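WP5 quarterly update. Target: 1,4-dihydroxy-2-naphthoate octaprenyltransferase. Source organism: Saccharopolyspora karakumensis. Length: 290 aa.
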Amino acid sequence: MATVAQWIEGARLRTFPNAIAPVLAGSGAAAGVDEFDPLIALLALAVSVSLIIGVNFANDYSDGIRGTDDSRVGPFRLVGSRSARPGAVRNAAFACFGVAALAGIGVVALSGQWWMLAIGALCIAGAWFYTGGSKPYGYAGMGELAVFVFFGLIAVLGTMFVQAGTVSGFGIGAAVGVGALSCAVLVANNLRDIPSDRVTGKRTLAVMLGDRDTRTLYTALALVPFVITVLIGLRNSWALLGFLALPLLLIPLRAVVRGATGRYLVPAVRDTGFAMLAWGAITGLALAFG
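Structure tokens (predicted):
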């Protein structure tokens, strides 16, 4: 039976920036049009964090029962390590999805945007079928696109919309920037796992592109937010503070560009997430007060 510490490790706390950054950016964009609602923002954060814990447990379960995690380098896996029963991990994923659904209902009740329940249902389905089901889209090179849509566009713009009832050009820019960095986190993760994924038949985008092109993709995605910073900075000079997040990317960029592999890419995944959190927070503050 897994210990509490192992369950916490299985929740993969290092992925939390993927959930927190879009809510910060979206709330900042809402505040920028004088429509910030702290209660809705907190509930949106609960939705986002519950979803990412749920998707982490769902991936642990689905990859574990397929044997994909048997020889993978990286974070601790509950099922792959045989520390927890697959059914228990699956149930934990469903419990997290339930929490996300309840918080989401609170969001739409307060905002009056009841049609967004359909968006919430789509997000939960996307979280499960990433590696779950008979034909998981994460095994067909679609993971990065899903991350960009769910933890970039939907998370940022959805957070803004439920508070402000509208989206702005600045909000769209923030959504693209957060989505690009969220994709970069996944690309670095999948770059690390290319050897084991090839053996187990998991055809991620990294497996399809190959080592060299995956490194090029990571570099491009990591730089996209700073192009957005310049563009937003033309209208809001405070947004240029987003460049303060760039130093956090120097070490992971160097590791990827210089050909780091295996466990040497684990810090790159973590540090890219921290850079995303910093960029999302700074950009959100700039949109709110700039």
